[in-house]
Amino acid sequence: MGHDHPHDHDRQHDHDHQHDHHHGHDHDHDHDHDGSALSEVALRVRALESLLVEKGYVDPAALDALIETYETKVGPRNGARVVARAWSDPAFHAWLMQDATAAIASLGYTGRQGEHMVAVENRPGRHNMVVCTLCSCYPWSVLGLPPVWYKAAPYRSRAVIEPRSVLAEFGVTLPDETEITVWDSTAEIRYLVIPERPSGTEGWSEDRLADLVTRDSMIGTGLALPADAHPEAAA
Amino acid sequence: MTADRLAALPAIPRDADGPVFREPWEAQAFALAVRLHEACLFGWDEWAAALGAEIKAAQAAGDPDTGETYYLHWLAALEKLVAAKGAVTDAELADRKAAWDRAARATPHGEPIVLGRELQAP
């Protein structure tokens, strides 16, 4: 991995309605620096899987379906802890926004792939969502296994072109004046969305807050759950 | 997947709801074994025995057996079992692994890794 390769942290796609969406979705300028490298064990699994699929022993769709069953079971879902801490602790929040890699690592959560984390925060008038348009880079050390739809071509292309209709399909409707920013992951930079803290959660413990932080809310295809959705919400 | 079948396996990493995985490849290797069993390539007892033998051999060779290496043993057992069943030979696996490695290295980040990419003209 070319860690000396300059990062452009501001590369993003703005989607307010006055904007022309077609502004050259150019990845090549910063992706052509080197090839991809798969780990030894990932190569072994790919070799085995591709041969078994070719020979007709397994159906790739059936494999995906099974993996999808366990998608919330892969990797620690530490992102919710990160978000809950940011909601509760202003000093941690400031650190997270300034240097997410270090702030997240301070909680003991480090990526195995050495990726650089950037936190992007939702607030009134501003919504963030994350995509990887050409592949499926995903901060699974904090979010677990990428959901199948995240890797699917329709999400990857449509999230950039028509984020509002993609959000609507996820059941999220935002005010017209809310600006939506779509962040495109790379091999080196992974984004974590910090959803807005739900109202009515004043004084809640971090543990309790973390229960409201869904995976989708940290990708930006969902919002944090409302306070009354907590399993221990007073009846 | 029934709980019974999982319980038949040596110490699979799991929580109250079922198996847990540390990395995506672990879930892929898990799914391959389950689907191959469903395709009747091997029986579940046979699989449990193959996995158990792999773990035992690793422990004898000094593996600390803390759960971090569980799916390495799982994958090794799977490779051996598919070879024993004549589904995929060791040579095919080695060739295919080298092909994926070449393909990955020839793939700029951000593009899907596909076999044969390194053979394509730019």
UniProtKB/TrEMBL annotation, chain A:
Family membership: Belongs to the nitrile hydratase subunit alpha family.
Entry protein name: nitrile hydratase
Gene Ontology MF terms: nitrile hydratase activity; transition metal ion binding
Organism listed in the record: Prosthecodimorpha hirschii
Enzyme class: lyase
Keyword Lyase: yes
Domain of life: Bacteria
Segments of this protein annotated with the region Disordered: 1-35
Residues covered by the Nitrile hydratase alpha/Thiocyanate hydrolase gamma domain: 40-221
Automatic annotation (TrEMBL), chain B:
Record Pfam families: NHase_beta_N
UniProt domain Nitrile hydratase beta subunit-like N-terminal: residue ranges: 13-102
NCBIfam families: nitrile_acc (TIGR03889)
The protein, known as: Nitrile hydratase
Organism: Prosthecodimorpha hirschii
